[in-house]
Amino acid sequence: MPDKSRHLSEQQLKAIDLILAGYTDKQVAEQVGVTRQTVNEWKNKNPYFMAELNSRRKAIRDAAFDKLLNLSYKAIDVIEKEIESGNWKLAMEIIKIVGLNSITIGEVDPEAIENDMKLKELFKVGA
């Protein structure tokens, strides 16, 4: 996959960092020395900026999901202790709150994954 960030200026890369840190468009503009409208145009009309921002957001989301998934092991240990102590009501409430019955993991068949990758590449979906 080509490096989308090479089409971006240092200002734009810094702007992406600031957006991901939670700064407003006005604050980003002040930090990088452009107008708020410029930041807004980058976010809504510059495909390279949009792609890089989306790519980094996806990486952050994926890392957060992995961390939460890892923490769920600790939560499951707590649930197990509660169940072993006879606290079924609390254990069931925790399961409902966490939504363990609704977590989607993804495809487990390598051939299906490979076919999906080929289709995405063919149609440039999600790029």
Keywords:
127 residues, mainly alpha
Question: Describe it for me?
Answer:
This protein is mainly α and 127 residues long. It has one domain (4-123). 72% of the residues lie in helices and 0% in strands. It has six helices and no strands. The protein has helices at residues 10-20, 25-32, 36-45, 47-84, 88-98, 110-123. Helix 2 (25-32) packs across helix 3 (36-45) and helix 3 (36-45) packs across helix 4. It starts with 9 loop residues before the first helix and ends with a helix.
Query: Whole-number average pLDDT?
Result: 86
Described by strand count, sense and barrel closure, the largest sheet is: none
Coarse structural class: mainly alpha
Helices and strands, in N-to-C order? HHHHHH
Q: Termini separation (Å)?
A: 9 Å
Strand content: under 5%
> Tell me, what's the shape?
flat
- Report the total helices: 6
How big is the Rg? 21 Å
- Count of extended strands: 0
**Low-pLDDT windows of residues:** none
Question: Roughly how much helix do the residues carry, as a percent range?
Answer: over 70%
Number of self-contained structural domains = 1
